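A note from the maintainers: we've had questions about how concatenated examples are separated. There is no special marker in the raw files; a new sequence line simply starts the next protein. For clarity in this README we add a label.
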Amino acid sequence: MSQEHFKFESETKYGSWTKICDDMMDSEAWQALNRSQRCLYLEMKYKFRANWGGSKSNRKSISDNSRDISFTHADALKIYSDMRTFRTDIDKLIDCGFVDCISSGKITKECNIYGFTERWKKYSDPDYSVPPYVIRPSLTEKEKQARKKAAERNRQRRMTNPQKQTILP
């Protein structure tokens, strides 16, 4: 009698699963990720669904959502305590070539849409770089500098007008 599953696996006969291949885990791109970035990738990969067609010997994916993975603010807060870490981790996944941001919901206040890529296979190439068309969901350097300047101005105002500060008991 053959065992159809290991004891540590689900006993569901047709249950879904999240696939991470050995070549991906052995790649330099995967090794460049920390634990939280790998966890984020697995959370995103968990949302991947494919519709299969064809005979058992010739199965093909008819359609999938590999370029339509939504990740909401609420999804991020389930695994992150603050959004800065999430943005850092998603940027690293983009840098390493695992995902792309297909559409940013920053302006419209909607969730970002991500898609899986195969750029991670070229990560170890000496001339690897993220293509310029790739959208960044986090703040650009110009936006970061503007926020820094605004924070510095506010700090200077508080220093010059200490009587206007509210002191909590």
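[label: protein 2]
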Amino acid sequence: MSPTDTPDLETAIRATLECAQEAEDECNTHSAHRQLATWLTELKERRGDGSPQTITEWQKAIHQYAKDKGWWDPEKPRSFGDLCALFHTEISEAFEEHRAGHAFTKVYENPDKPGKLEGVPVELADLVIRVLDFCEWAGIDLQEVMARKHAFNLTRPYRHGNKVT
């Protein structure tokens, strides 16, 4: 598989389960891989290919996963500033991948952490995941807002505002 190939869901589930079986002696890794394979399988059963199809469905699925993993502990709420900083972190990581000479489309596996994907596209995906997670938590229907914002943008003139960039 080339660095830019993305496996289909069935391949991802199979690879995740194989990795889990190989990691029997590493209890946490084994458990995490099994949980991920279970989650991917549940997604596949819900939808024909296993993936949410709309922004709203992605938003709900990502937030549920984040809650299940303890990222939204009501005992330890995170501030909006902290969450915005996390958005910025993902943008900075994408920029660092670019500065390291990686092509915009290159996705590669971290040699020190098998299975962990790296690259500009991965960091941008992390940003979108964080934004969708936050939107679901905050009650923002991002799909609706995007549709309305895009409709407004379609009414704007060429390079509106005379901005240079």
